[in-house]
Design brief:
This protein is α+β, with helices and mostly antiparallel strands. The chain is built from four helices and twelve strands. Bound molecules: biotin.
Amino acid sequence: MIDFQVRHYERLGSTNDEAQRLAAEGAPHGTVVHTDEQTAGRGRLSRRWLSPPGNLYLSIVLRPDVAPARVAEIGFLAALAVADAVDALLPRQLRATLKWPNDVLVSDGKIAGILAEQAGDAVILGIGLDVLQAPTGLSYKVSTIVGCGGLATVDGARDRVLAALANWMNVWEQDGFAAIRAAWLARAHPVGSALSVQMGDRFINGLFAGLDDEGALLLDDQEARHRIVAGDVQLR
Ligand code: BTN
């Protein structure tokens, strides 16, 4: 099992940047960078990640024994881990769901985002989880643990996320991406769901046809099956 070593900071630009710096200095597998707030939090597709105090911002240095082409798999297992942690903190009737590629949703609002980046021979796994503070001014609906009636402290949420991550890393190492993909599909929009995928200024509407064995989204429209590696998904 992975042994996490947590380094706590009051404020950073981005935990992914600090974890990348530590990785370049040789920080071991399982080094965790946790901060109370970020001044330059980064999201997918070069977006900002609003990071006021009251939420969880962490990045983990991982040194998995797999080819760089498999980094994307880590985003899927991390989404499963965050969803398990969120479930444990929410009232019993609410369950986290997943949206491609790595969003964790509760009651249709995004509650967590994941950013896995290659950094030399390490992978930096960044996780942002809205615990107490709902960021404002976003173009999509957000949820927080406490706003959904859950009970959590930021440190408590961190410990649950790390425990669940250790579990899903273990599944990945033992059973490979096929097991992660099956578990992810069981918590995501069902196959056949009508999705709209935005890639830059291009949209494709179609029906969700699952994930390929690299985690790419498969979308069927009347003309073809599309294989999508980066984009934003809306459920129609
Ligand atoms: C997304 O766009 O959904 C991914 C968001 C990832 C945000 C986290 S917060 C901790 C880590 N540090 C960053 O700068 N980004 C990630």
